[in-house]
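Technical annex, item 7. During the second reporting period the consortium partners agreed on a shared format for inverse folding records so that results from different sites could be compared directly. Each record opens with the tokenized structure and is followed by the designed sequence. A conforming record, contributed by the partner at site C, is shown below for reference.
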């Protein structure tokens, strides 16, 4: 999904949020339970932008006209480098309705979990404010 990649790379978080379906489900690489809904997904993505350093997409995989896309990225969390992939599915309206992230290595995933965990109250409050 090239539009999503362009919005992320431009730092256009409103543009990223506009590409999310209301019923999007976000699956985190470090939390067991998926997060349903646009408000929480947008809040998580806004926090990730603060956590990731040196973030860049390095590859797009998938048919541009198809519903399934994979965006491979590299980033750093503190002193831990990681590689990850955003797996996106778009609905018939062209909006992202399934967003799953995977990262490696384990030490990078642990650093990400710690950094995001420290922000989770803020993330939840932001999601609540957006959904009301």
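Designed sequence (site C submission):
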């Amino acid at each position: 999904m090239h539009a999503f990649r362009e919005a992320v790379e431009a730092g256009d978080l409103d543009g990223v949020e506009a590409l999310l379906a209301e019923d999007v489900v976000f699956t985190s690489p470090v939390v067991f339970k998926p997060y349903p809904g646009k408000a929480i997904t947008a809040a998580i993505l806004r926090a990730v932008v603060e956590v990731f350093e040196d973030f860049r997409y390095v590859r797009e995989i998938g048919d541009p006209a198809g519903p399934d896309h994979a965006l491979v990225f590299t980033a750093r969390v503190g002193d831990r480098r990681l590689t990850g992939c955003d797996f996106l599915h778009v609905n018939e309206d062209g909006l992202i309705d399934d967003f799953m992230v995977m990262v490696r290595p384990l030490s990078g995933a642990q650093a990400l979990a710690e950094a995001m965990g420290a922000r989770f109250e803020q993330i939840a409050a932001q999601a609540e404010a957006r959904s009301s």
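The longest helix spans residues 38-51. The chain has a mean pLDDT of 94. All partners now use this format for quarterly exchanges.
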